Amino acid sequence: MLDLITLSCALRLPFSPSDAVAPLAAAAVASAALLSPPPALAVVSPTEAITEAAVSAHPVLRSLSPVYFPGFVDKVADVLIDVPNSRPGALFKAVDTGLDALLTVPKDKLGAAAIEEAFSGLDTSTCDLVPLPSPELFSKFKDTEVAKVDAAKLKAAVDVLKETTKSVKRTDTGVCLPSPEALTKIALIQTEASAAVDPAAAAKFAAEAKKLGGAVNPRNVLPLVPYVEPGGLLPRSFPADQLARFKKAGFALEAAQKQALKAQKGGGLSGMAVRGAPAS
Q: How far is CA 180 from CA 3, 7, 160, in A?
């Protein structure tokens, strides 16, 4: 869910880069509403974990409610906007260091070619559309401390994201969902991009994101709960076994990331290099 919201926000980038603060901000605590005890899992390789996460996410993405998803992301934004009331500067620092980290990734590692290939042949009139956040999302951040982010840095990051996703097929309200195989390839290549982040920049961002998450008022997270219950983001008829597989894949991916971090002692935003990932 974390990556889903981040990607959705990035695809909703406004024309004015000064408004584009939500993609990084929303990523910090978007997964809070999905907290549940992790199952006992055998640690698998990062490549296996990413592949399973992408494949299991496909039916979830296809079934997301276009009515409730934008509202859910708006409420996540509200949770973040409240953070400076208890810890001034936390939101700004998380966004600022996140931009710094993004801008250290070489452009040839961002996977633009893989994204273009994934969306080739898709048509918005016939494809499954994944809902996007509301167009008003970014305006929520205009009067917050993130408005202090350096305009030139923000524009550079927005330009990178727009160039990387320019081949994505979308409408005003949704984006075409690629096949499970294409989704997997994108996930693997974007993980390589994460591993290409400058280690020092990655460490700074990770530290600030952790502080931001720790500053979230738990009471503000409660309004997110109804969205992740049956009949919220997903229909009540969504198969329980598919949802269980999706959640299990998320925990397995987290476990694989932690294992890779221990083995490599850092070295990228995700802390793991993916072997055998397709070339972009």
A: 16, 16, 25
